[in-house]
Each structure stands twice: as C-alpha cells, then as structure tokens.
Amino acid sequence: MNVFDEEPSNITLSTPKASTTGTTIAIILEELRLPYTFHLLPHSSSTTTLTDIHRTGHGPTLHSLPSITTYLLTRYDGDHHHHHHLSYPPHSPEHVAVQESLSKLADRMGITHHHLHHQDSEPDNKHEHKHHHNKQHLPAIKETEVVGNNNNTAKETATATVPFARRLLSLYLHLEEYLSRQRRGGGRIWLMGHSTVADIAHFPYVAAASQYGFDLERFPELTGWY
C-alpha cells in the first residue's frame, strides 16, 4: 500500500484491442483514480503489459492479470486507515474468497499466467495518449485460445479446445446460480460482499453477451449485477 505523500508514478498500460485483461486493468486503474498512459497494440496476439516507473526510474513490468491486479491493489488500494476500495485486507477470509473467484475464472475461461519482469528505464512513448476509461463504451472482446508455454496445466490446455461461446454460457449459468444464492442468503448483489476486483474481472465477459448471441435478460440475477 502506498502510504507516503509522493509524486505519482508513471503507469503505462499496453494492450491489444478487445483484450479482456486490458479492459479489466483499465477499469481497475479508473476505479483507483490512478493517472496512466494507454498504448493500443496493433497485433491481437500481443500480451497486455503494465509498467509502473517510479521516481527512481525503476519499477515493475507485469504481464498477466493476476500479477497486475495483485500489484495494483497491494500498492494503491488502501489509505492511512487501511480502508480498501476494491479488495480486502490480505489473508482475510474475504481476500481468500476473491482470489479463489479469480482463479476459477481463469480456469473456466482459459486465462494464462506469465511472470514479473523489471524495467530500469522509461518505456517507449510512441503512440501513447492519456486514457479515460468509460464502462459504457467497452470494446468487443475477441475469442482467443490459450497460448502454449511451459507453465500451462493440462486443465488450461483442455479449456482451449472448448468453443469460447460455450465457455461464456458456462460462466453465465454459474454466475446466475451463484448470485441467486447470494440474494436468497440476504447478501448484496456483488460476488464478494462489496464491489471488488472479482466483479471487475468478470465484467468484460458479461459485457460480451450480445456479441456472442446471448440475451442477458434470460439471466435475471446476472442482469441485475451487470
């Protein structure tokens, strides 16, 4: 958590068009009210990357949704009174539940995991512009397959063979049932207590319903959440 009064760091988000990871990270940056520079990458196979160059000229370069969200929430989601906006205190039951939700989403949709690297100089500033995210104008997401690498599990490889629309339908049915249980139990219409990164990570997939021929109104609980 960033508890010192210091100059804001230089955050850059580079992502291909229609990337669910890029959309999720952009929403998180907006919710945390962090200024950032946005690069739209020309190739759909490119990897979403976030760099955060500090005043020292050093900072991390991250390449996966889990590593980026963990970094942003650990460093920026909280204040002097330990109030969290998009997360819960580390090691709390709620924090564990959020992490499990993200892990299940990754397994269901075939999201790959990459590693953290560090960058010692400022990124290339070509074609950059300041980005102000608007949830009402999200790009349509693209169908992707899991890219093979040495860290893939058999489950991820199997997920890649399932048509993307079928994965979406499975996700919608799961969320509909889960939210229905939440409501019957007297819970709020969020996945984990209050609005967290778990909700944000699911949002791009639900926003893509009409793109893949699904009528979201057929899922009343999910429609209410959306």
Number of strands: 6
Quickly count the helices. 7
CATH-derived topology of the largest domain: Glutathione S-transferase Yfyf (Class Pi), Chain A, domain 2
Q: Would you tell me the overall average pLDDT? A: 78
CATH class of the largest domain: Mainly Alpha
Whole-number radius of gyration?
Answer: 18 Å
Point out poorly predicted stretches.
1-5, 112-140, 143-158
Helix proportion range: 25-40%
Order of helices and strands: EHEEEHHEEHHHH
CATH architecture of the largest domain: Up-down Bundle
Structural write-up:
By secondary structure, the protein is α+β, with helices and mostly antiparallel strands. The protein has two domains: 7-83, Glutaredoxin; 88-109 and 162-225, Up-down Bundle (Glutathione S-transferase Yfyf (Class Pi), Chain A, domain 2). The protein is built from seven helices and six strands. It has helices spanning 20-31, 65-76, 93-109, 154-160, 164-184, 197-207, 220-225; strands at residues 10-16, 36-41, 49-53, 59-62, 117-119, 129-130. A six-stranded mixed β-sheet has the order 5-4-3-1-2-6, covered by helices on one side. Helix 1 packs across helix 6. The longest helix is centred in the C-terminal third of the chain and has 21 residues, at 164-184. Residues 118-127 have a biased composition (Basic and acidic residues). Residues 115-136 are annotated as: Disordered. This is GST C-terminal domain-containing protein.
